[in-house]
């Protein structure tokens, strides 16, 4: 039964009684419920049905919606067994008619909702109840195939196409995936095993991928065991990722947390990530394909991120950076038992640039390297990369950091004939592990300065006198996404 324009189905007397006698705790959400019920008393001509329970709540979002429906209105069954792929796609196809009429929201109640990949629409919100779990199907027929991304030229696991992500969107405006910490479970072991056995014909799906879109919010969700990357906004702008918990085994393959890729004006805030790959990996395409596509990632802010990733980086820039990465600001970052803090990964043949990078107030416990820059990452899309396409790495600023139990303070390796320039590191104290390497810094093909850094940096990063350098740069002004105010959206719905 599709939703109707009145938003909320008329209530029967039975439902009213159920509501009034239910043992409610005095919380704001219940006050809203009562108001909705009172409003409904005036609805006339109500067709009454037994067993309806009204539920309502509030959440914060970039935009609120005029039309609502629940996945159960479209035949969804939350038993963990029944496939809901068709229910999701039917619901969203139906709700897409409201794009120019106030938009719509699709509610996923408590339950286990098995589903394959489905596609979102514009001016749309997918909202997960706190006890809702989307379970990724293991039936390959429920995963449509997509062409390789143009800026990559091929899939990362296999040259041919790639499986569409569990939640997919392309060419959208104003799309929100939000929850009261509801869960999206990729059931990744199935895919990791195929990957390790070399049995994949196509590249593994991601949990969330939104392409060619503008105005994206992904908030207050828990993402579990993704087959591969977790959140992948690509060729998009005006993006808010907030309050996301990402959990995957630290040995799981390529389970990157959040990968903004050829995106502009992006804010990633208040996320907690435990994963088998980089917690945040900033990207912009691969070798000759990325150079030809030429779309950078720029204006990115990462705030209050906690990362645990023993075999990867807290924040990686690259290795696919051929469209360029510029103006990345990260602050109040905590890394625990993680291989490296900030890592720049690139190679001859990548072209592009990584410039104007600013990181401050980072706390690191138990790390292999606090800072790592790799100019010989290799890993090419194919043999046709241009050996003359050298990346420009310039304007890298790190300040106000403390670290303890670190094996090596820094390993900074530029490219011969293409040094990484304008590196600035100030006010950084790195406590070395008992079994630390004898030489805490190794530096080749880099240029820059330091101030107030312990242990003493390499000779290529000479310490400045305090009157010449007090602190490395960090831009004081906001990026545009910082001034977007979230609205309080309310949601009233019924279910059987
Ligand atoms: C996410 O949840 C937190 C804590 O409940 C809340 O403060 C925040 O406003 C929520 N964010 C959004 C975008 O709803
Ligand atoms: C989406 O937008 C891109 C870039 O503008 C365009 O190349 C592509 O054809 C569009 N795809 C669809 C499905 O409309
Ligand atoms: C969300 O759920 C995850 C997994 O259960 C939990 O670790 C996390 O603390 C929860 N986050 C919030 C803000 O409640
Ligand atoms: C140096 O960094 C520490 C740790 O982040 C911070 O508490 C302190 O205020 C910084 N000092 C200056 C002079 O900025
Ligand atoms: C220091 O790091 C080592 C691993 O490199 C770990 O085994 C040890 O527990 C850490 N010590 C502390 C005090 O965190």
Automatic annotation (TrEMBL):
Compartment(s) of residence: Secreted, Cell wall
Keyword field: Cell wall, Glycosidase, Hydrolase, Secreted
RNA-binding as UniProt keyword: no
One Pfam match: Pect-lyase_RHGA_epim
Predominant subcellular localization, coarse grouping: secreted
The keyword Hydrolase is annotated on this UniProt entry: yes
GO MF annotation list: polygalacturonase activity
Ranges where the Rhamnogalacturonase A/B/Epimerase-like pectate lyase domain occurs: 70-115
GO biological process, one term: carbohydrate metabolic process
Source domain of life: Eukaryota
Family in the record: Belongs to the glycosyl hydrolase 28 family.
UniProt protein name: Rhamnogalacturonase A/B/Epimerase-like pectate lyase domain-containing protein
């Amino acid at each position: 039964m599709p939703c109707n324009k009145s938003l909320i189905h008329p209530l029967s007397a039975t439902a009213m009684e159920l509501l009034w006698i239910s043992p409610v705790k005095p919380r704001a959400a219940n006050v809203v419920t009562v108001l909705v019920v009172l409003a409904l008393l005036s609805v006339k001509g109500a067709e009454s049905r037994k067993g309806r329970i009204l539920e309502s709540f509030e959440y914060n979002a970039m935009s609120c919606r005029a039309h609502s429906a629940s996945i159960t209105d479209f035949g969804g069954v939350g038993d963990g067994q029944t496939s809901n792929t068709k229910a999701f796609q039917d619901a969203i196809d139906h709700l897409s008619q409201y794009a120019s009429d106030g938009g719509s929201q699709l509610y996923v109640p408590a339950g286990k909702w098995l589903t394959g990949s489905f596609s979102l629409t514009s001016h749309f919100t997918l909202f997960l109840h706190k006890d809702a779990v989307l379970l990724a199907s293991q039936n390959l027929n429920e995963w449509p195939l997509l062409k390789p991304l143009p800026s990559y030229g091929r899939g990362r696991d296999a040259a041919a196409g790639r499986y569409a992500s569990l939640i997919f969107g392309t060419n959208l405006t104003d799309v929100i995936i939000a929850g009261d910490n509801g869960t999206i479970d990729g059931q990744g072991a199935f895919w990791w095993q195929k990957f390790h056995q070399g049995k994949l014909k196509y590249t593994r799906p991601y949990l969330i991928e939104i392409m060619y879109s503008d105005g994206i919010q992904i908030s207050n969700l828990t993402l579990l065991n993704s087959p591969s990357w977790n959140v992948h906004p690509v060729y998009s702008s005006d993006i808010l990722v907030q309050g996301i918990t990402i959990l995957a085994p630290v040995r799981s393959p390529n389970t990157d947390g959040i990968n903004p890729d050829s995106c502009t004006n992006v804010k990633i805030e208040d996320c907690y990530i435990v994963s088998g790959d980089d917690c945040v990996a900033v990207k912009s395409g691969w070798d000759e394909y990325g150079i030809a596509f030429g779309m950078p990632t720029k204006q990115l802010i990462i705030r209050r991120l906690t990362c645990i990733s023993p075999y990867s980086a807290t924040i990686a820039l690259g290795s696919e950076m051929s469209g360029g990465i510029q103006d990345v600001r990260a602050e109040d970052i905590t890394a625990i038992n993680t291989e490296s803090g900030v890592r720049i990964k690139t190679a001859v043949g990548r072209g592009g640039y990584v410039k104007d990078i600013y990181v401050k107030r980072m706390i690191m416990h138990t790390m292999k390297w606090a800072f790592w820059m790799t100019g010989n990452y290799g890993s090419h899309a194919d043999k046709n990369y241009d050996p003359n396409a050298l990346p420009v790495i310039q304007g890298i600023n790190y300040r106000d950091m403390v670290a303890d139990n670190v094996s090596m303070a820094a390993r900074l390796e530029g490219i011969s004939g293409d040094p990484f320039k304008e590196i600035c590191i100030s006010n950084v104290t790195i406590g070395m592990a008992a079994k630390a390497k004898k030489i805490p810094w190794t530096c080749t093909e880099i240029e820059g300065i330091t101030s107030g850094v312990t242990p003493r940096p390499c000779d290529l990063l000479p310490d400045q006198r305090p009157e010449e350098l007090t602190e490395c740069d960090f831009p004081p002004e906001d990026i545009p996404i910082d001034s977007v105010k979230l609205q309080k959206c309310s949601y009233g719905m019924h279910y059987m």
